[in-house]
Amino acid sequence: MMHSGNPFGQVLVALVTPMTADGEVDWPAVEKHMDQVIADGADGIVVTGTTGETSTLTDDEKLRLVEVGKDVSAGRAKIITGGGSNETAHAIELYKASEKAGADGIMIVTPYYNKPTQAGVLTHFRLVADATDLPVILYDIPGRTGVPIKYETILRLAKHPNILAVKDAKGDFSEVSRVLNQTDLMYFSGDDSNALPHLAIGATGIIGVTGNITSAPYRTMVDAVNRGDLTAATAEHRRLEPLVRATMTHVPGTVAVKYILHGLGRIGSPRVRLPLVGPEEWEAALIEDELSVVSGLPGADFSNFRPDRNAAAGGALPKVHGTTR
Question: What's the Rg (C-alpha) of the chain?
Fold first, then answer.
């Protein structure tokens, strides 16, 4: 199927998956959180991505997140399913099921742990893209997968009619520029601190973690870039910097976001699933220090921030493990 234009949106939030204290998905909190980030300005949500703890979600949970996202968004935002699998056969079945569940697009991560050659990476992406009519975002994050999508491989993948975009967490801006010059691929910044630099060289949008706390500044930044107002975009980038630092520097983004959202009273528990654990005392202190200098940021009022380090401590061991079958 040929896809014209941008079917993903520009301000996409890599959604956390709120959980109860015992590590079960808190579905009412999921719905509330989805509605909040959309109301704040997100026009796309990535469920079951890294930030959503895809590695420890069951397939049933992943598909239900798509279904809930479609219901909550009610056409206000695109629902993209991330995660996938490092097993090509499993990834194909999961994305087929996600399409049936109502996903608007899929984000395919480079197979992790296996460390395939570029021929294997190419084959994996092509076969998954062949198996669905949904538009595809390639997720290039070698820091987690151990394998980059090399420039030559990206050029070859760009010829596939369903592969429309790249989420870049590699940070090689010269390569991004080369790909933008030689293909029609859209780029999404996959590193919150690099959102504006990516946009400044022609990226379409962002897929961010900090947007869980407030997507409004990213909406402002993207809209400013769209109208050519780099001064306004830069001002928002600077206001965001301490919040991005608090979220992305000291512990995994998922852990920090849940800790912050819980302290703001927006989710009932900051719990993450093992092997992730909540911040240790010194890590929590660093996060709180960074938040103390956040100011003038729409949707990020920390005057009533009440963090609970005890509630965040440790990690949950759910009753049903995330399984590939």
Answer: 18
